[in-house]
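Incident review: delayed structure delivery

Summary: a single-chain prediction request sat in the queue longer than the usual turnaround. Root cause was a stuck worker, restarted by the on-call engineer. No data loss occurred. The affected request and its eventual output are reproduced below so the record is complete for anyone auditing the incident later.

Affected input:
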Amino acid sequence: MPVPFIMPKFDMDQEKATIISWSKKEGDLVKFDETVLTVETEKVAIDVPAPASGILAGILYKDGDVVPVTKVIAYILKEGESIADLPKADSPTLPSKPEAAPVLQTTVAAQAASVNATPVALRMAKEEGVDLSKVLASGDKITREDVQHYIEEQKKPAAHVTLPATPAARRISLETGIPLEAVAGSGPRGRVQSADVLAKANSVPSSVTTINGREAEVVPLNSIRRTIAERMQKSFQESPHIALAVDVDMTEIENTRKRFNIQAEKFGQPRITITALMIKIVAWALVRNPYINASFNGDSILLWKDVNIGVATAVPQGLVVPVLKGVDQLGVSEINMRLSELADKARENKLKLENVQGGTFTISNLGMFGIRQFRAVINPPESAILAVGSVVRRPIVVDEQDRVEVRPMLSLTLSADHRVIDGIVAAQFLSDLAAGLESPNLLLF
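Output delivered after worker restart:
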């Protein structure tokens, strides 16, 4: 029987995926584990491989379709099978003559019985897996040259990907409606990059509508922005948010960073960022407060053994959350390097699924924009998120004699799911986090 080609489920909470583009078309010969199409989940674009070798047939969904996971999207025909063998409900309309339904013929005798071809052409068709009923003859018989010409034509990209392009570029092309053919590629051999499509999209005038006598620019939701909207609305509806804030003196962290950077320079390593130090201390505080590193699971609470911290990162299409795994087991320099690598991948649309799944806690930092304090929305299925503002130098009382000094101060706000985390638990976590930031040597105690 034909092998069903289903829409894979890449993530535990994934319900659907959007088809960005098919790299193979109806009737193409595919090999096991060869990329057949590219899809986009709520997090990243992924290449989907063939589940078996054979002929791709019965394609049920086109580019841009949103498909539920585990749905059959096509079939793989094995030797001797044809479209007639597909399940009746999924059988596509049979092609009209002279093009016949794709059948994988395996013997010269079978081919010779249905087409008029030279022995050399028959042998070549068998070796290359070509259906001779789809090959046009240049004379009375199909020749070797005719088969060779057909093979070369099949190797050309399908109509919807006539230009070489990265998966991210194809996805953005679909979201923005900018055809790849209209974009000049800046990559190797003219390959279209995501930045090329974005540049073209920014140069195209957007549509304008008039409502109640007022003009407004119409910006359609792309798939990432739509996903953000749906997930944030769902988060607020399902998770009763509570928020607690604390101010932290960053003097010791800044001094620690200076000392670490002296060592980094000696070993030729990148300079340590405040964010890397923050992640390490957050991991330390999470280990001390396991209910913050948890998820609500219907009739139970999951206390995760792993400490996997996501860092919200802005990209041109919206927001992604790359995840650093096992942070409590890493040193600051390792966190710093991994953080830099993930940030680069996010900006270049090169994140893989494993880079964005499995998070147990998220940090959202808007301090670089001068935002002093804000509340972030919890990223399900996590139970808490930390909002980090900007470091501001301001006068504070530093001792019991009311001595005032100007210190670098940071505001942190924890949003927590009240189904899992009580106010006192959230307060204890913030207290530990503030203590770790103000006295980093506590991590060695």
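Verification: Confidence is low (pLDDT under 50) at residues 93-109, 158-162.
Action items: add queue-age alerting; document worker restart procedure.
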